[in-house]
Structure formats: structure tokens, C-alpha cells
Amino acid sequence: MKDTKQRIIIVGGGTAGWITASALAHQFQHQNITITLIESSDIPTIGVGEAVIPPFLTFIRNLGINEQEFISNVSGTFKLGIEFPDWSRKGDSYFHHFGALGRKLDGYDFYSCWLKTQREGASSALMDFSPSAVMAKHNKFYLPSQLPEQSPLREANYALHFDASLVAIELRKYAQNKGVELIDAKVNSVNLTPSNTVSSLDLSIGTTVKGDFFIDCSGFKGLLINEALGSEYESWEQYLPCNRAVAMQTECVGNTPAFTLASAQDAGWTWRIPLQHRTGNGYVYSDKFISDDQAIETLKKTAKGKALQEPRILPFVTGMRPEFWKKNCLSLGLASGFLEPLESTAIHLVTRGVQFFLELFPNQHIDESGLETLAQEYNRRMAADYVEIRDFLVLHYCVSQRTDTKFWQHCREMPIPDTLTQRIALFQERGYLQPSNDELFKAASWQAVFDGMGIKPKHYHPAVDSLDGTQLRLALEAGRQHLQQSIAELPSHDEFLARFCPANLGSF
User: Fold this and answer.
1) Which residue intervals of 65-154 are DSSP H helices?
2) Which of the following is catalytic: 79, 116, 326, 327?
3) Whole-angstrom distance, CA of residue 14 vs CA of residue 19
4) pLDDT, tens digit, 9 for 90 and up, residues 89-122
5) Is residue 456 flagged as an active site residue?
6) Which residue range forms the structural domain that includes residue 341?
7) pTM for this structure?
8) Are 208 and 326 contained in the same domain?
9) What is the dihedral of CA 59, 62, 68, 71, to 10 degrees?
10) Residues 172 and 309 in one domain
11) Considering the domain boundaries, does residue 192 fall inside one?
């Protein structure tokens, strides 16, 4: 007789493991399901995922976690977007904002209206109409939801920078309080049934753990999904040339920017992520165009503040497993795939994967056919997310006008996915972007990157020609000035952090 409790086993902790455990524990806290996480304190985690995008805050809120306390406990700072110096040309810079970009005018699409004014001689920048970009430019911050109803800044959005190791600690406490069992051990071997489903795990502490469903958060190794079940990995290195990163922490210097800095370099790009107690720095690069020693030297030259640790080299291969879910095993985090952190999407892909899994959650009496049906749908939806994000990242490289190094020459000449080729062609013709409610990056994000990289449509939508050009320019200018005036009374980012969520020094 089968055990009446359904047993979920998670292999691997870190951010991915504890996000998964927290979500499952919250969803099933009053049901006949046990959740066990196996994590060895002897195995270090990667721990460099220090920035997220806005959906992560929705995830935290849905768990019932107090946002203010969470930010304090993880030494968090606010993130209004990402600044991209030197990507299109050396000396140029653009901003990818979070939240709204302009407002419709008489029901007409803002971007088409802005394009019309540009064709008629207006000089306003696209980001002049983004509440988040305007706040970031002046290094101001306030929670949009707490601003007056009439403030245009209410349409801003934000995410976080944080210490990934502290996030794992916070979520571990949360999950254990919800009843998740933690076993500190290594997995010595994976036992399969005759039909090649996972039945149990032999642990280094001499015990065997049985389960009904297994979740692999074991990192690049893919202990279950790869080594035991043989789920293949689809490499995207032909589209995304970077394959290594070097990371280093430094002391904080100067004011704390409310955005991530992603600066193009000779063979890739460097990040700067400000926390309250330190700054995260890294160089994502291709070892075909620069050596590890050269990358470390570049990082040391570009990083600000005294180094707090020696640089760490992190090799990777961008891509995904088309079978994220195989048999009775689901992979999440690095075990499922990897996309470089240019747009801070790694943790989002974990929460998104957990969300889909909860929607398709198999009951304990499901047969193999039913399990395969659920797995196929999950794999389809996750693959679509990975492909969308991949194409968005490739866009940053392939339309660059830089030719000053062999790396950037390669980026201009490399093949790009057909899905991206079509998207670029549609945008170049008339600024058109295929509408999709399920995509992560909405039209405003694509518009920000296209514009920042110097890609302008040949035409705008002809419908906006029904609007009077002079009145349209006046309306846009009034909106631009209203945004500028609205930030005058806001506190600086550092002032808001000190007032609202100062780092809890006892947590690190």
C-alpha cells in the first residue's frame, strides 16, 4: 500500500532550492504532502545572483513575507532598471527601465506618437517619459504605491539588488517554519525504477530517502536530471558568445545608485550591483577573445572600492534542457539551463518554473502517461520563456555598431535566431512588436533596447497622423515636464534606504 503522504524531495539548496521549498511549503501547508530538501553544508553555492526583476517582489508578497523586513535582512537596495554604457558605440549609454513608458494619447500608442514628434523635429529622449528612468537619473526613490494618486511616478516599477546568500537564509527560515525538512548530506547515488523514474536517493550519512517526485536544484551538475535521467543540454553559445565570468566584491563607494550598471567591455561586459554593505562586481566575457588573467585585470581596473575577496572564475555554457521535466523529476535553476545575467533573469526563471509546476502539480496517484502529458506542457511553456529571454539578450549584442575589437566584430557577424530576425525586421519597418500577454519583456522593454542601440523604425503607425502635430508635441512636453517636477520632493535613494529599510547588520 502506498504511503498516504505525497513525498517531494528537493536536491540542492541555495537560492533556487529554497525558493522552490518556500513556494511548495506555502502552497501545500495544509495538505497531506511532505517536502524534504537535501543540501550539503560542504558544497558551496554559486551565490552571485544579486539582482532580480520586478516579478520577484510579487513572488515574495504572495508568500506573505513582509517586503520591508525582507529587504533589510538581505541588505537590499532598489533597482529601477539597468544602465548600459558603451553598448551601441563607445561613449553612448542607454537605460532599460522598469514600469510604464509614456501614456496613450487619445487612445493612440505612445511610442508611435513619440516617433511622429521625432520625425517632426522634437528632441525629447524616449526615457524622458519613463518614471523609473527619470527617478534613476536623479538617484531618487520612493515606493510608487505610496505616492499621491495623481503622481505620474506611480507608474514606475522597481526590483531589488541583494545578497543572494542572505536571500537563501531568509527563505530557508521561512520554509522550515512551514514544515520543510532539511537533511544536511550529499547524494551518493540515485536509484531508478525499471521504468527509469527516480525512486530514492542514497545519502552520505548512510540513509536512503524515498520520494514520489524529485526536484533537481543541484546546479550545473544536474545530478538527477542529467547524470541519472540523461536529459540533454541544448547549447546556445552560437548566439551568446560569452562563456565565463569573474566575480568580486568591493566596499561601497559614494552614493548608492538605484540601478544596475552593465558596461560593455572589449570582450564582454562588466556589472556593478550596489548593496547596502558592499558592491557586487563581475566581468562576463568570452575566453575566445580574452584570457582569464586579462579579464581579472579588467575587473580590478573598473571596479570601485577596496576588494573584499579574491576574484572567482565561473565558467558556463548558455542554453537549456528541452526536457526540464523528465519522468518524475523537475529541474530548476542552473540544473535546468543558464542565460547570462545581463537582464537579471536567473531567479525569475526559477520562480516562473515553480509557478508553472504548481499549476501542473501531479497528484500522487498519477500514472506515467498522465505525468508525461503534464511534463510536455511544462517543457513547452518553459522553453518559450527561455527562448524569449535568449532573443532579448542576443539583441543587445547583434545590433551593436561597435567594430573596435574582434569580440564586437564577431557579435555583428554571428548568426541570430530566426525568431529574433523576424522581430527586428518588424520593428525596423514600423515599430511593431508582436503582442503577447505571457511574455516577460513587454513592448516598452524592447523599445528601450532598440532605441538605446540606435535602431529606429522607418515609419510610425499611420493612424497617429490624425493627431495635430503641434498639439501632440505640446502634450508630450507637458508630460515630460510633469515627470521632472514630480521628482523634486522625493528623497534620494540613500535617504529612502536609511528611513525605510536599513540593512539589518545582525543578519550578515
Assistant:
1) 67-73, 110-119, 131-137
2) 79
3) 8
4) 999 999 999 999 999 999 999 999 999 999 999 9
5) no
6) 6-50+163-235+319-386
7) 0.96
8) yes
9) -20
10) no
11) yes
